[in-house]
Each structure stands twice: as C-alpha cells, then as structure tokens.
Amino acid sequence: MLAGGLQHPGGRPATNEPSPTMPWRGLESPAKKGDTVKSLLRVVVAFIAICALGNSRAAAQDTSSQATASSAGGTDAFVDQKFALLRRDIRSVKKQLIAANLTLSGNEAAKFWPVYDQYSTELSKINDTRIVIIKEYGDAYGSLTDEQADNLIRRWLDTDIAAASLRQKYVPIFRNVLPGKTAATFFQLDRRISMMIDLQLTSQLPLVQSQD
User: What is the pLDDT at residue 93?
Assistant: First the structure.
C-alpha cells in the first residue's frame, strides 16, 4: 500500500514495499560518480511505472530498458532529456493519484482542477530546482568540497521552505473552491505523495561522507 492506504489510479493498492526495483532504503555509494544520476533515473522510472500501472513487472522492464539506454548513451543530453520526461511523468502520476483518492462532486471538480493545475505548475518550478541540485550533486560526487556541500544543502533546504510557503499560500485558495474537510484531505494527499517522491529521489543519493 502507498502511505496511508492510497490507491493507484486503476483502483488497486499501489505497493509501497521495498523491492529490487525500488531500493529506496539503500544508502550504498555508487561504484562510479556517474552512476549516481543513472541510479536515480532508474528508481524513479520504476516508481512511476508502479504507481501508474500497479504492476511490478512493467516497472522491472522499464528499469531494464532505462539501464540499457543509459549505458549506450550516457551523455549529458540524454540525462537532461530523461529528467525532463520524468518531471512530466511525475506530475501526471501525482495528478492521477489525487484524482483516485480525493472524492469530489462534479461541481467541486470543475472548480478544483483548474486551481490544482495552477498550483502544480508553481510547485513544479520548485521541483525543477531540486532536480538541478541533484544533478549538480551527482556530477560533483567523488570530489565534493566542503564549500560545495554547504551550498547544495542550503539550496535544498531553501526548496523545502519554498514548498511549504507555496502550500500555505494555496490553503485559502483551495478553501474557496472546496469544503474545509475536502481541502484538508487534498493537502494530506499532496503532502504524502510529495514525500514519497522525495524519498524515491533522495534515497538513491549516497551520503556525502561516503565519497571519502
């Protein structure tokens, strides 16, 4: 089950258990510096496949093809392209999960989704910044200095603050189009799903001291 018993869009519970395709508790250092970003790409592809399809076999196949493509063309352009696709797919899966778990009347839905799309667009800008930071970390890993580490963690924490501020900003906006309990349920779902995605991303990054 996803955190809190979330259902995937097909109506079946989406798995949140560790598996070979979703090693989100792994803290091992990658064998090579370039493996950090590739590992991250693979696990998020698996996460998207499982959430969208509820099918671990599809996730494994997607992960395998991703690994092959990464090995064949591990260039910066390839990584940038895949991150762009992942950002798009993550937004799509998140919206599907919200739709599958938030009960709305027809009138509520007509008012809610335009506001959600606006909120999602603003949040995606913050997430884009996080992707940039992750890529910088992956590129520098193995020779990261104290100054670089300090810069990266401060910028990452700034994105946490920005995301929290954005949610605060949108509380009254969503409350204008939804009843109080429904709006609160949306923010619960939004936070849970965002935390799951963050976990998928950050758990694939080696600890800074592991490079020494």
Answer: 83
